[in-house]
């Protein structure tokens, strides 16, 4: 039994990671870089210093990133002899907490346009969004790494009940509005229509497992599972073959709505405070819905396992429907096809910015992600400096997901109407990728017209510029 169930569990883990590795919609660095149109995605009260900006398709704005509880070096160790690596199971478990998070997000802006009408700001954008939020406890990882036949589990009951998974892909159409109430206060809101393409939502995943001593190590399981799925690719039968037919901009009957709210306030000339909440919303899934629920959560089922090789030909899984049918029987699941509603992952921002000079800015940002029923906090301190009239450089330091080696770098280049930016919150990962638990990259090209005039920058100097008194 152990030999049979371990490949299944390891495959499930790899599928979760692979589905994730393909994270935050926009980098934290963009929050205080208000010259970037992308800053309005984190706070709709932000607006660039121009009358009109246009971001074109393909080259507009692209973001990719992830947060993980462990790095590649945490997963592997070298063999005593030779240069090959192996998965060090005890090393992996030592890196885990009782509850762990794996996040991934991809944001591809297909176009954005914004206008400044005096006290009023308007913008409209279209984007493709994909995210994975995987919450798991250390006992689940222990089961995946050792299988139920390991000596520490035989004859013992294991409770696994702190897990969740949300994989979602959708198209986003956003209309933003900002109002400058006065010189100190600006309010912003963005209304978004969401068209869902793909969703796998594990709303509930509680298991009680007992491995009986004896031949084959049969596993007695009681489960309380709520799993919801929808896809424009297929109905999840032969899904791997069907995925090749996926269309990048295929509209569906899965409709959703969301809202962003933001505020900026300047209590003093050089000090600015801001706050926002984004992605408050949900999507109702109707197309190719297939849901699985435990029909008797308190009932025990004995699972003797199955050989995953029965479903694999030439190294590929040929029919996912057979695997699902097998799991339904052994874990007491009922299949339904009713429409359901899944939530987005809201994020809250609270920031402060201080400008000691017109060229320099210091910033502090607190961000909270609401991930499957719990808050995941992070904090970022940043500094930016404007050089000449076309280059802005940015550096920050972040503490994210119990990771403390996150130094970010960024640059904005503006010449004429052209603007290019590239941002990274975890530049350390570029130098030591095997040690990185987090990584992201955000870049794009846009065009800004009729920029607002700025007062000449004050140079740092100790020379008295006041005229001498005349005798």
In a nutshell, what does this entry contain?
With 471 residues, this protein is mainly beta. The protein has one domain (2-451).
How would you sum up this structure, described in words?
The protein is mainly beta and 471 residues long. The protein has one domain (2-451). The protein has 7 helices and 25 strands. The strands form 3 sheets. It has a 21-stranded antiparallel sheet that branches. Strands 3-4 form a two-stranded antiparallel sheet. A hairpin with a 4-residue loop joins β8 (164-180) and β9 (185-211). The longest helix has 19 residues, at 2-20.
Please count the helical segments: 7
- How much helical structure, as a percent, in the residues? 10-25%
Query: Which stretches of 5+ consecutive residues score pLDDT under 50?
Result: 1-24, 239-244, 455-471
* Rg of Cα set: 26 Å
Quaternary structure of the protein: single chain
| Form type | globular
Structure classification: mainly beta
């Amino acid at each position: 039994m152990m030999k049979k169930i371990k490949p299944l569990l390891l495959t499930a883990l790899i599928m979760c990671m692979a589905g994730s590795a393909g994270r935050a919609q926009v980098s934290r660095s963009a929050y205080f870089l208000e010259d970037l149109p992308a800053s309005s995605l984190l706070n709709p009260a932000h607006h660039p210093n121009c009358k009109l900006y246009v971001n074109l398709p393909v080259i507009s704005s692209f973001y990719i990133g992830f947060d993980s509880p462990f790095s590649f070096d945490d997963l592997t160790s070298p063999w005593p002899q030779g240069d090959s690596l192996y998965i060090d199971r005890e090393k992996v478990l030592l890196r885990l907490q009782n509850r762990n998070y794996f996040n991934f997000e991809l944001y591809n802006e297909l176009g954005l346009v914004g206008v400044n009408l005096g006290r009023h700001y308007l913008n409209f954008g279209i984007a493709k969004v994909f995210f994975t939020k995987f919450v798991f406890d250390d006992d689940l990882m222990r089961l995946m790494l050792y299988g139920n036949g390991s000596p520490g589990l035989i004859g013992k009951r294991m409770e696994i009940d702190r897990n969740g998974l949300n994989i979602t892909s959708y198209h986003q159409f956003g209309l933003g509005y900002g109002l400058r109430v006065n010189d100190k206060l600006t309010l912003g809101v963005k209304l978004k229509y969401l068209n869902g393409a793909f969703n796998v939502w594990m709303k509930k995943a509680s298991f009680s497992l007992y491995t009986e001593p004896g031949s084959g190590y049969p596993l007695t399981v009681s489960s309380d599972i709520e799993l919801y799925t929808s896809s424009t690719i297929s109905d999840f039968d032969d899904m791997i073959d069907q995925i090749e037919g996926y269309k990048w901009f295929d509209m569906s009957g899965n409709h959703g709505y969301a809202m962003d709210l933001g505020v900026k306030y300047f209590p003093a000339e050089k000090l600015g405070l801001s706050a926002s909440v984004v992605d408050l919303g949900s999507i109702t899934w109707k197309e190719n819905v297939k849901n699985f629920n435990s029909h008797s959560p308190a009932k025990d089922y004995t699972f003797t396992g199955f050989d995953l090789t029965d479903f694999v030909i030439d190294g590929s899984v040929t029919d996912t429907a057979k695997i699902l049918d097998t799991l339904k029987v052994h874990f007491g699941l009922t299949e339904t096809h009713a429409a359901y509603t899944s939530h987005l992952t809201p994020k809250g921002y609270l920031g402060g910015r201080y400008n000691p000079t017109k060229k320099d800015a210091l910033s502090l940002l607190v961000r909270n992600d609401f991930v499957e029923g719990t808050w995941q906090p992070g904090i970022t301190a940043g500094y930016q400096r404007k050089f000449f009239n076309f280059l802005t450089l940015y550096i920050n330091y972040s503490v994210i997901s119990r990771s403390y080696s996150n130094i970010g770098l960024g640059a904005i280049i503006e010449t004429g109407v052209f603007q290019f930016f590239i941002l990274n919150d975890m530049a350390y990962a570029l130098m030591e990728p095997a040690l990185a638990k987090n990584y992201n990259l955000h870049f794009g090209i846009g065009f800004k017209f009729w920029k607002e005039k700025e007062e000449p920058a004050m140079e740092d100097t100790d020379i008295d510029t006041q005229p001498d008194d005349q005798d």
